[in-house]
Amino acid sequence: MRLTLWVIAAVGLLFGAAGAAAEEVAGLPVHIQRFDPTAIRLWVGDSISSTATVAIATKKGILVIDTTGHPRVDRELRRIIARELGRSDFEYLVNTHEHGDHTGGNAVYSDCTIIGHELVAAGMATQEAERPRFIEWGTTRIADLQRDLSEQPADTPAAKRLHEQLTLAQLNLEANQSEEKRIPPTKTFSDHLKLNLGDTTVEMYWIGGMHSASDIAVFVPEHGLLMTGDTMADVWLTDTPGCLASFGARSGIRHDFPRWLANWNILLGKRANIKTFVPGHWNGELSLAGVEARVGYVETLWQGINQAVATGKSLADLQAEYRLDARFPALTDSPGFSRSNNYMTILEMWSTVTKQESAADQLYALIDSGAPESAIRDVLAARDVKPAKYYFLEDQINFSGYRFLQENKDAQAVSMFRINVELYPGSWNVYDSLGEALLKTGDVDGAAAMYERSLELKPDSQSGKDALARIRAQRTGS
């Protein structure tokens, strides 16, 4: 076995860095990257943002980090791992977080101890409830990709990309339609866990809240590898970064910013022993400078927001003070950062510190569930109550209205936009948005009145001018 490993290592040194594809699984090329004689990384596809699986041979068996989420693919990758490492004693699987593209292949390793954060199971259950929606969306997605592919000349780069996207969509649909049992971790932890595998140490730390609630980092010091899941990347290798596309705190995901910072600072304290940062998808890369910049960003915001709340600053003050382009110019064009992600992170930190809930989120939930008008009035009345239970932001309420429009819930969108008009009668944009929603419901006269009011407040609004021109043309039949 020793000879086999070193022969494989020699081949890996020639081809590992480039991730050369030597075979196919489910119609997609397989890539194998060798970090050293007993540690490899595998993924499928040349252009899709597929999950990368890491496998490490240890004295106490093979350790695997993450599945691709497609059982058919994961069964083949398990076979390839055994071949590449020259052994088949699989003992451990680690899930870096709850999402299906990392946990969907757990059944392939049902004979192993499956390790993950204690919140993984709850996240998997939530996704299980969403399966009908995923199936509906996936069916539509496949039809769209088949149409697009049929319009492309064969053997072009565009056709190749579309073929891979179509194959991945079909695998996703197959996985969602499968009756194969979803298996959550069988060994869990809340903050950190250290696993001794004889010649290999596996350190796991919770770093959740910026991608999913259950994100963990996996550090293997003997190999100098730090697996970071889908939490961050500072280089994208494809035009579609997929799960690595954002770095920001989102509503509905549990946060513990002090613990997040503490665990990342523990990991950064090991920087001298980290040779390679390994994101959860092959098409992203991460550097030490990238990690330090992102941890520094969160630390700056967290400290600043705590201080601002203590000194009585408003949420609007904070949004202005910590604008991405003004306060963090070096991160403006950095992968994962955007104005909207920065905005959301500030909101989540504000909510954490003040214990205030988003009025927009509460109103959206009430309207979506068909709650009585009295429940909506209770939220609006709380605007003047001290201490505040909710924070109110015009643009966030407006965004919630557009969420309804995108979901073709036009009546609900009108209700949300009317609330914004009531709350912010001096804003031209709230009338413009209500006009758009009314027009979509067929209330042309109501829409015209809203656009006219919008133009009174902002005479140079091109969207208002264009909308009124269309309405007038429609009325005259020209």
* Percent helix range: 40-55%
Based on helices, strands and strand pairing, what is the structural class? alpha/beta
Q: Which CATH-level-2 architecture of the largest domain?
A: 4-Layer Sandwich
CATH topology label of the largest domain = Metallo-beta-lactamase, Chain A
CATH class annotation of the largest domain:
Alpha Beta
Features:
alpha/beta, Metallo-beta-lactamase, Chain A, 4 domains, 18 helices, disordered N terminus
Q: What does the secondary structure layout of this molecule look like, with pairings?
A:
Layout: H1 2-15, E1 21-25, E2 28-36, E3 39-44, E4 53-58, E5 61-65, H2 71-85, E6 90-94, H3 100-103, E7 113-117, H4 120-129, H5 131-150, H6 157-177, E8 187-189, E9 192-196, E10 201-206, E11 216-220, E12 225-229, E13 235-236, H7 257-268, E14 276-279, E15 284-285, H8 288-310, H9 315-321, H10 324-327, H11 339-354, E16 357-358, H12 359-369, H13 373-381, E17 390-391, H14 394-406, H15 410-423, H16 428-441, H17 444-457, H18 462-476
Parallel strand pairs: 5-6, 6-7, 7-8, 12-14, 16-17
Antiparallel strand pairs: 1-2, 2-3, 3-4, 4-5, 9-10, 10-11, 11-12, 13-15
Helix pairs in contact: 5-6, 7-8, 8-11, 12-13, 12-14, 14-15, 15-16, 16-17, 17-18
